[in-house]
Amino acid sequence: MHRREALATLLATFTSSAAFAARPQVSTLIGTGVPGYSDRQVNNPYGLVIGPDRALFFCDLDNQRVRRLDLRTGTTSTVAGNGQKAYVGDGGKATDASLSMPHEIQFDAAGHLYIAERDSHVVRRVHGGTGVISTLAGTGTAGFSGDGGPASRAQLRQPHSIAVEPGGRRLLICDVGNHRLRAVDLGTGSIQTVGGTGERLPTPDGARLEGTPLNGPRTMAFDRSGTLYLALREGNAIHRVAPATRTIHHVAGTGAQGYTGDGGPARLATLAGPKGLAWARGALYVVDTENHVIRRIDLRSGVITTVLGTGQRGDGPEPEPLKCALSRPHGVLVDSRGVIYVGDSEAHRIRMLA
To answer: Which GO terms describe its molecular function (predicted)?
Structure first.
């Protein structure tokens, strides 16, 4: 072989190896595939966030706890919940309180942790300094009441998702059972409906958010500009809310349930009960729960693709992302490095795509 041919072969081999090494691979961060409660086991993980200390916090749903995973050491600790499914403990340490199906969590700029508890019909707050838990919104009884008054006296019905607005003034709540999006002013404590009418009707494209029907608002995420992305579980669609006009615009999903459209416009694709969203680097990541996949929408081109999962329910195998089956995933998070974390709920794992 001539020297030039040898160099070309070496370069081609190196390029191919580098490209292979650069492909994202999936691995299990915590979980064994069997439900449990330990440094190695979880039981139906849902929402996830990176905390102020750069640790991973997650809802360990069927353990009725919110837990912290140190990403450097791999050790876990409980930050809220005693393992009992109930609504008790306000005014005491969060670790001594009982939670009832914690679905999603968020931190505010002051380091306070907010927990959406579906079956208690409340949103609770863990004080960042003292660790004391209290109720921010909801009475513990399902219903719809209280707009214009204190959030702690208002009724919610199965709140699933929460998000702190950019600037930190309000906490938004997906009040799924009431088919409404509600907002709590964190300064005054008052609550108001900001979207949804209580009707299970289609959402008109371009309409004002206030007074427009929302069919099962399940989860949401903000981008850096303050645009809100909102997934409708029963509506099988994703919309964005323009911050300047407060109008709502169709992003993905036809409204029909299915698993089609990869490689084409997200607006023409079908989804099946989307239950998690994360924005990162000009893309929206969608937990397409009943399709058992994570999908990515390029917000510039509008094209949707699958980045993790096979479309069939299962548990692995790892590490090839499109060969790794998931089992009704719910939570998704993308960190500052672009690493994707997924609460692979009924596989009882938190997976990492990096």
So the answer is: protein serine/threonine kinase activity
Give the containing element (helix H, strand E) for 293: strand 293-298
- The reply to whether omega before 319 is within 30° of 0 (cis) is yes
Mean of the per-residue pLDDT values of the chain = 94
**What is the C-alpha separation between 117 and 21, in angstroms, rounded?**
41
Q: What does the alpha-carbon distance between residue 300 and residue 226 come to, in Å, rounded to a whole number?
A: 17
Among 13-22, 210-219, 339-348, the minimum mean pLDDT is found in 13-22
* Listed residue (211, 218, 170) closest to 190, CA to CA: 170
Q: Given this model, what pLDDT does residue 234 score?
A: 94
Task: Specify whether the CB–CB gap between 238 and 219 falls below 8 A.
Answer: no
8 Å CB contact between 80 and 61:
no
Can you give the pTM of this predicted structure? 0.93
Segment 327-346, tens digit of pLDDT = 999 999 999 999 999 999 99
d(CA 341, CA 334): 6
